[in-house]
Amino acid sequence: MTKINWHYEQMTSGIHIALRSEKDLVSVETEFQDVSIFETRHLGKVMRIDDGIQVTTKGEHIYHEMMAHVPIIFHNHVKNVLIVGGGDGGSAREVLKHRSVEKVVMVDIDEQIIQLSRKFLPEINNGAFDDPRFELRIGDGADIISQYNDCFDLIILDAADPDGGASETLFTQSFFANCLTALKAEGILVAQGGTPYFEPYMMQSMVSRLTQAFNNPAGIYMGGCYDYFGGSHAFIWATRNGSINTLPLETLESRVTTADIQTKYYSPEAHFGAFFLSKDMREHVDQAV
Ligand code: SAM
Q1: Lowest CB count within 10 Å: 28, 65, 124, 227, which one?
Q2: Which residues carry out catalysis?
Q3: Which CATH number belongs to the domain containing residue 242 in this structure?
Q4: From the CB of 192, is ligand 1 less than 6 Å away?
Q5: Do 65 and 208 share a structural domain?
Q6: 48: CA distance to ligand 1 center in Å?
Q7: Is the pLDDT of residue 107 over 90?
Q8: What percent of the chain has pLDDT over 70?
Q9: In 109-211, which ranges are E strands?
């Protein structure tokens, strides 16, 4: 008889998500974290690290497209990108769609995540790890960031929530201060800000930490969300020179046409609309600053 496994994630106090595995593909205890990848009926393949869902093949495109294309289209001449975390390769895949991008450095603490993602989630990394513009560095992002000065147009912080795991070091003020140093004058940092309906404190804390570290107000935009439940996902961004805003729809349409990227979720309209926060979300953000 086939054994049915349920994978549980505590979303917040009093709410657990249970996903039924149709087939367990791999389960490994690495030097840094417990990783499992399994197949589900409605979310496709799921990668879980420690007790948290990291990525699903059904919904990852929303998260990765919004994380990459919103800042790249806004900036308009991104050449050098640093991804901190991101071991499944989805963020790298989206960044590398832009012909303007000359170099992507990805720093992940856990080499085994990249090997497992290559083997079990090739539809997510989709050749990104073999792109000649891609460089992989293995180490703690909090250490490696201090080696860069005035290097990147964009830093993508694609790490799990700071809940006691390996990503804890990536949510400190000293890490964000080093990110600021690593960025060029017009550089942008974007980070995931959690699912705002269930964990508004995550988005609030990221807004206030980035605002403080960059000495400029951090901004927020929203995308839809399959992977982490709760309907919406928050993205928090800040720039060295303080200029963050949405762009007129006509400008977005023109830039997206020029970029000529193939996407499933991201569009000029999705970009434009992502900045219109509902009243309750605006109140949450205002409380943070
Ligand atoms: N999208 C995901 C989320 O929001 O939960 C993040 C997915 S990605 C797989 C997270 C990656 O961050 C993992 O590959 C993990 O190894 C990496 N990571 C965790 N802590 C890190 C650190 N201190 N430095 C660099 N990479 C780290």
Answers
A1: 28
A2: 158
A3: 3.40.50.150
A4: yes
A5: yes
A6: 11
A7: yes
A8: 98
A9: 134-138, 152-158, 183-192
